[in-house]
Structures are given as C-alpha cells and as structure tokens.
Automatic annotation (TrEMBL):
Residues 372-395 are annotated as: Disordered. Its main location: membrane. GO terms for cellular component: plasma membrane. Residues 376-386 have a biased composition (Basic and acidic residues). It comes from Tetracentron sinense (Spur-leaf). It is a single-pass membrane protein. It comes from the Eukaryota. Residues 1-23 form the signal peptide. Keywords: ATP-binding, Cell membrane, Disulfide bond, Glycoprotein, Kinase, Membrane, Nucleotide-binding, Receptor, Serine/threonine-protein kinase, Signal, Transferase, Transmembrane, Transmembrane helix. SMART domains: S_TKc. Coiled coil: none annotated. GO terms for molecular function: ATP binding; protein serine/threonine kinase activity. This is Protein kinase domain-containing protein.
C-alpha cells in the first residue's frame, strides 16, 4: 500500500475536482506536486527520457525517498487528451495484477497532466524482440514465460477483475518488462469497460495501432474481448519470430507476419518462423503449439478466436487443438480486389485517418507510394466513412 511521503503534496480535493472522477479506490491515489516531478526527472532532461508514445514522452525519475518512477507526460500536441487521461486513471487505479503495470499517482497542475508509474528497468518488450543484439538475451524459456504472463494479464482484464475491460491497444511496446523480465501490460488510455453481460460494442472513433487491430475493429468499429485476443495472437507470433507484423521483407517481397506464418504453416514448415537467435534453445513441440495457438487467435472471424481462458489452457496443456482457419488481413474473405478511397482530390491523397485501409491493402501485397503511412492510427467514422470505398490509383 502507498505510504505518505514528503515527496507528495496533497490528496484528493484538487485532483478529483480537476479530473472529475471519484470512486472509493481512486481516493487512495496520490497526487504529486509538479515541483516534485520536475526535481525527480531533472526538469525532464533528455538523459532521463525513456521513450515517446501517442500520449507523449515518458521520463525516468527518482523521488526524494530514492524510489524510481516512470513519468508519462501528456503532450500538448498529443492526439490523446483529457478523456484518455481520466480513462487511464479510473481504470488502472482499480486494477491489481502482477502482469499489469502499477499506477503510483498523478500530477495535474498548471498546464501539466502526468501519470506516475512504477519504473520498469528493462523498458518494453519491443526493445528486446526486435533488436538484433538484445533479442539474443531472450531464450525460449523466457519468451514462453513472457507469452504466458501477457495472457494472464489479458485474462485478468477480461474476466478476473471486478470490471470487464477491453484494452484496445495491446502491442509489444505496451508490454513492459521489470527487473526479472516479467511482463506488465501498460497504457490503458484507450481501454473500455464492458457491463456484466455485454460482449461487443461499436464505436465511431477507431483508435489503435495497425498491425495489431482486428479486422472487425479496423473496418467496422466493432470491438470485444476477441479484439484483444487478436492483438495477443500478433504479439505471440512476434515473440516467436522476432519480426514485426506490419512490414518486413522476405526474399525481396513485402509481407506481414500473419501471412508469413500462415504460408509456413500451410507448407508444414512452421518452425522456419522461429527467431534464429533461439537456435538450439527451444522445444520444437512447444514452439509449434504456440504458433498453432497464435494462428487460432488471429483467425479472421472473431467468433472463431478462443477466449483468453482457453488460450491459457491450450498453452499449458497437452490438449488437441482445432485446426486454424485462414487468418485475417489476407487476400480473400470480405476483401475482394484492391481497397481504395474516393476521398481526396488527387491520386491517393487521403486523410491520415484512412491509413488503416491503405495498410490493409498493403498487407495483401499492394503498393501505393503516395498514401500516408504511420504507426498509431485513429479513424472517425462520422467524418471519414470508408467502409465500401476503394483506393483509386493504387495498383
């Protein structure tokens, strides 16, 4: 339990008035004085900067009692604003699990809005599995432990916590690693709470990171626990392969990892997917089972994907697994022919919020040099309705 420290300013009234939320759990969330955070981060020095996300920069800090913290500072130009800030505070303050990052407090003062987390010395999962040198530090045993830890964290969100929470932005960079390399899911700004019997919801504002978004969410704004299952499946395949889902080259061809995995699986050579840095350190049977589970998680139809409770059971038990169906984001299914958009005034001059469709087109082998490309994306269906549109001039 958090203990009062001279590093803290006050509790409650100012914070809850500013954020506009107050529940029994959140009354215990400390409020940090801005001067405390400025001192802890050496005035947000570049040397203490840990990274940058859609929310804004993240800094390492050390409180006057010696405790290390991570400070997530809302950028004034961030696409995420006060609503996401409040959302993260309301959600994560209620959650306690060894595979979720701990929120230590927050700071709202002057024009600053910051979230204060426990410090994760090994940063994020992507800084290991996609780094040609650091990935060698993760043998198969450790990677499997990370896979299971992430699965347990997602299961807690979906089923075991007091709330049913859909994360909506699960990705390798949102999985942090502590000193013992235990995974902790972070970044709940886009998460949503489901009611007791609610299983699916629709949104006009699609947010997330392409490569991790399920097809029904990216294209129709539908999200459910199966959306997170899809994202988990992508992360699982990334951990095994050491490759990002969105965009790598194999034999001079642009591929996405899901299609690459499916091709290997269909040709009965799935072990060719395994990261070469793990050569000789893994159990072929265990890896094949994980690849199988990953493909079940990224199936095109949400109803075909297993819930996280089943995923964990399949990962840890010698049970017969059903054959995976064709994954999402492949040529076929509901995506016949090229995807295009009539938006814009010239060839492929589309709004950045339409980048999801361009991404889907690119993932099935198309190219469009003038279309925007990026990581985190946001689509507003009311302003940019493109469900049945096509990319003109993309061949």
């Amino acid at each position: 339990m958090w203990r009062f420290s001279p590093c803290l300013l006050v509790w409650g009234p100012f914070f809850w008035f500013s954020v506009g939320v107050r529940t029994e759990n959140e009354r215990q969330l400390p409020f940090f004085d801005l001067s405390t955070i400025v001192t802890a981060t050496d005035n947000f020095s570049l040397a203490n900067k840990l990274g940058q996300g859609g929310f804004g920069p993240v800094y390492k800090g050390r409180l006057c009692n010696g405790q290390e913290i991570a400070v997530k500072r809302l950028s004034k130009t961030s696409g995420q604003g006060m609503e996401e800030f409040k959302n993260e505070v309301m959600l994560i303050a209620k959650l306690q699990h060894r595979n979720l990052v701990k929120l230590r407090g927050c700071c709202i003062q002057e024009e600053e809005k910051m979230l204060i987390y426990e410090y994760m010395p090994n940063k994020s999962l992507d800084s290991f599995i996609f780094d040609q040198i650091r990935k060698a530090l993760l043998d198969w045993t450790k990677r499997f432990e990370i896979i299971v830890g992430i699965a347990r964290g997602v299961l807690y969100l979906h089923q075991d916590s007091r709330l049913r929470i859909i994360h909506r932005d699960l990705k390798a960079s949102n999985v942090l690693l502590d000193a013992e390399m235990n995974p902790k899911i972070s970044d709940f700004g886009m998460a949503r709470i489901f009611g007791g019997n609610q299983t699916q919801a629709n949104t006009n504002r699609v947010v997330g990171t392409y490569g991790y978004m399920s097809p029904e969410y990216a294209m129709d704004g539908l999200f459910s626990i199966k959306s997170d299952v899809f994202s988990f499946g992508v992360i699982l395949l990334e951990i095994i392969s050491g490759k990002r889902n969105n965009g790598f080259y194999h034999e001079d061809r642009f591929l996405n990892l899901i299609k690459h995995t499916w091709d290997f699986w269909s040709e009965d050579r799935a072990l060719d997917l395994v990261d070469s840095s793990m050569a000789g350190s893994y159990s072929a049977h265990e890896v094949l089972r994980c690849i199988h589970v990953g493909l079940l998680c990224v199936q095109e139809s949400a109803r075909d994907r297993p819930p996280m409770s089943t995923v964990i059971f399949m990962l840890g038990n010698e049970t017969t697994l059903p054959p995976p169906k064709q994954p999402a984001f492949m040529l076929g299914g509901n995506h016949n022919g090229p995807l295009s958009s009539s938006s814009g005034t010239g060839p492929c001059s589309i709004n950045e919020k339409l980048v999801v469709v361009y991404t889907l087109y690119k993932l099935v082998g198309g190219t469009c040099d003038n279309a925007p490309e990026g990581g985190e994306v946001e689509r507003d269906w009311e302003r940019d309705p493109i469900r049945n549109s096509t990319f003109s001039e993309c061949k």
